[in-house]
Design goal:
Layout (H helix, E strand, L loop, with lengths): L3 H24 L6 H8 L13 H12 L1 H8 L2 H9 L4 H13 L2 H13 L4 H28 L8 H22 L3 H19 L2
């Protein structure tokens, strides 16, 4: 049984991440102090260190939560893989549903703005982006398409290229959507068209 202290600690950690994300997206990583995060959460500055060793660790946790772990949850699930192998025609519908949940999450929008602001001039953010988004993201999509390939659901293309072919243009679309504050309906239509187009290339 989880005691009240553990529940409070867990809730506080979540609040620290949420408020940090908001502040990072508003003021940038370097422009946000630990004291400001603590004030938003409603705790003393030193209390942050009961949950995170540093501000960089908060950033890394955000990358993990909104980056690779989101992909991992849906693309490494054995039931999902087996279902799509047996019903490959369902792949576009499956991916559209996953990406709608991901891209339309307001926190994802904040997170992606943090990426765009920080990865160019912040070495810590750049390294975390390289590890959490690019490295682990590539591992996950490689695993997913390798499993579909084993089950005969996709063509004999290099698995690394399959993931790149689908996801890289979608990230560019998302950047355009966030920067221009475009219409959600137009963004989703273009996303759906891209997924359908690529799946026609990859499917057997």
């Amino acid at each position: 049984m989880v005691n009240n202290d553990e529940n409070i600690n867990s809730e506080t950690k979540i609040r620290i991440m949420e408020e940090s994300l908001s502040l990072f997206s508003e003021k940038g990583f370097k422009g946000t102090s630990v004291r400001e995060i603590a004030k938003r959460v409603g705790i003393k500055g030193a209390s942050i260190y009961n949950h995170f060793k540093s501000k960089e660790e908060i950033l890394k946790s955000l990358f993990s939560k909104y980056g690779s772990s989101t992909l991992r949850a849906s693309l490494t699930d054995e039931d999902n893989i087996q279902f799509l192998a047996e019903n490959p025609q369902e792949f576009p519908k499956f991916l559209k549903k996953q990406l709608r949940t991901w891209f339309l999450d307001k926190n994802w929008g904040k997170f992606f703005k943090v990426i765009l602001m920080e990865m160019v001039h912040n070495e810590s953010a750049k390294e975390i982006f390289r590890e959490e988004m690019l490295g682990k993201g590539q591992e996950i999509t490689d695993f997913f398409f390798t499993e579909l390939k084993k089950r005969g659901a996709v063509k004999e293309y290099p698995v690394s290229q399959m993931g790149t072919l689908i996801f890289s243009p979608l990230l560019l679309l998302d950047i355009e959507f966030l920067l221009d504050e475009g219409e959600e309906e137009t963004f989703l239509k273009r996303m759906d068209e891209h997924i359908d187009f690529v799946w026609d290339i990859l499917k057997k």
